[in-house]
Amino acid sequence: MLTKYTSPHRNREYGTPATTAATAGTETVATYLNKRLAQIGVGHVFCIPGDYIAEWCATLDQPDLNAGLVRVHANNEMCATYAADGYGRAVNGSVGCVAFTYGVGALNAAQAVAGAFVERVPLVVINGSPSIGQFNSERDQGVTYHHMLDGSRTDLRVFREFTEIAVLIDNPATAPELIDGALRTCITASRPVYIEIVNQTANLPCRAAPDAPLQASPVPATASSLNEAVDAVFMHLQNAENVVIVGGVELARSGLQKPFADLLARIDAPYVTSPLGKSVLSELRTDVRFAGVYFGRSSPPELQNLMEAADCVIALGVQDTDFNYLGVVTPDYNPAAASGLAGPTHIQARNGAVLVGRDLAYWGDVGLAEFVDALIAKIDSIGTLANAPFPGPQGPASSIPIPSQYPAADAITYDS
């Protein structure tokens, strides 16, 4: 996990008085952050405006300072974080954002942030902390500020454990680089990042924000790795009789729904999704062949049969859990039982790596988007796969009626 910690003594190093205020029309740490948040896809900030974050929150209510961001006041920090989590999942290109204050506020949100980290949700966590002077007061005089546990940056140490990067903004000279680094990490890794803003820092002047928005960093890759991985997968596709494609959560987080649908149409095979990847494409689409949500041994029998009959399983962007492939979802699971899933032709492509066969071939420097595009181009180079279409289950993917078949006045129940 990449973390970055900025010394609380940076103000002293750069000689920036903590009381310096920006003049009208100049860029500040707060306005810089607002502009960069808006550029990466944040539209709403779910905010609990406690005292140490209040200075920055106040800029969200001023049209000339908020860069179009809208402040939403939730009931508490955990509710705010879950709302921001949902916002980050909902629409391609959207990024969730939550803000709260130190200690008693931030620690209330820890569980929700950890959940967003596990499920790869792009989320910016902004926390307002006591000033450097207050931290020194705790150290020298024993004054406790907002459940400060020991004066050694408790919130920063806690949140760096389940965010992709954690930065401390305590000096306007270094603030732009730290903000940019955190936000670029968020949209690259599709995971929460943590920005802690020291009290009395938000309104200090800093360099102007660039007009060009931040972009995700591409996976460092070599052309030979990409070509070799695509050739290996293509060979298995050409030799297979029963292909099943599995769509995972990383497709949605990377905005790859259209390329995924294009690939499905070219392979002409049934596809399933993992639980985390559910609805990566609409399950009601007729141009692709949805077969269900594969949930290991909790899946319907016909879906388990489909997966076990496959001689080529291609998983794209699937985050392995005990629900997905191994079927470890029931108390009677027997780890010694033979797996019915395709072994030598089990193919898994995630953002940054391609695995062909559990022990056969691995490329650790291939981006998911580049892989999908290259595989589409490879299939297009020969026109169509000679062994397609591949067989799938008979009948609908689910025995549950579609929503429109239920009377609108009916209550929602567990069964429906």
Work out the helicity level.
25-40%
Number of helices: 13
In whole angstroms, the N-to-C terminal distance is: 41 Å
Which segments are poorly predicted (pLDDT under 50) over 5 or more consecutive residues? 1-21, 326-333
DSSP, total strands: 13
Taking all Cα atoms into account, the compactness measure Rg is 25 Å
Order of helices and strands: HHEHEHEHEHHEHEHEHHEEHEEEEH
Q: Residue-averaged pLDDT, rounded?
A: 85
Beta-strand proportion: 15-25%
What kind of sheet is the major sheet?
A: 7 strands, mixed
Question: What overall geometry do the principal axes of the alpha carbons give?
Answer: elongated
Question: What is the topological layout?
Answer:
Elements: H1 10-14, H2 29-40, E1 44-47, H3 51-60, E2 70-72, H4 77-90, E3 96-101, H5 110-118, E4 123-129, H6 132-141, H7 154-159, E5 166-169, H8 175-189, E6 193-198, H9 223-239, E7 243-247, H10 249-253, H11 257-267, E8 271-273, E9 290-293, H12 301-309, E10 312-316, E11 346-350, E12 352-356, E13 361-366, H13 368-382
Parallel strand pairs: 1-2, 1-3, 3-4, 4-6, 5-6, 7-8, 7-10, 8-9, 10-11
Antiparallel strand pairs: 11-12, 12-13
Walk me through what this model shows:
There is one protein chain. The protein is built from 13 helices and 13 strands. It has 416 residues and is an alpha/beta fold. It has a 7-stranded mixed sheet, with helices on both faces. Strands 2-1-3-4-6-5 form a 6-stranded parallel sheet. Strand 5, helix 8 (175-189) and strand 6 form a beta-alpha-beta unit. The two termini are 41 Å apart. Mean pLDDT is 85; it is low at 1-21 and 326-333.
